[in-house]
Amino acid sequence: MTAQESYVLEAMGWHITAGHADWLESGETLADRADIRSAYEALDSRLRPDALYRIIGLMHHDSSHTEYTPVEGGRGVRLLVSGDGLKVEEFEVCVAEEVQFGLVEGCDCARCMVGPGGPKR
């Protein structure tokens, strides 16, 4: 069995990118690596500053992935870290079910765009 850790946080997009910027300017050894800097810049460019994100991380001894999932749906971003390097992927998040239960006001995903009173399209 491999050791693993996980975490779940929530933060606004602008707060996430500000934290990344602070870390990249910190002078830490990892923050100075060009591949890490470019991966975080790619990640940050895909986050919406005004959106609330649920940050879900899973770390194994040899790899990790962190998902930045918009609470009200839309485009999420995943940062994958492994022996092969860093990779940034996008994925679609639909929260139409959460809208039906009244947990969020609307879904910003490309497929349904559901809000109070039905589809936005």
Which structural traits does this protein have?
two-stranded antiparallel sheet; 3 helices; 7 strands
Provide structural commentary.
By secondary structure, this protein is of the alpha+beta class. The protein is built from 3 helices and 7 strands, in the order E-H-H-E-E-E-E-H-E-E. It has helices at residues 13-24, 34-46, 96-100; strands at 4-12, 52-60, 64-70, 74-82, 85-93, 114-115, 118-119. It has a 5-stranded antiparallel beta sheet with strand order 1-2-3-4-5. Strands 6-7 form a two-stranded antiparallel sheet. The longest helix has 13 residues, at 34-46. It is globular and about 45 Å long. The model has no long low-confidence stretch (mean pLDDT 85).
Structure, briefly:
This protein has helices at residues 13-24, 34-46, 96-100, and strands spanning 4-12, 52-60, 64-70, 74-82, 85-93, 114-115, 118-119. With 121 residues, it is an alpha+beta fold. A five-stranded antiparallel sheet has the order 1-2-3-4-5. The chain has a two-stranded antiparallel sheet with strand order 6-7.
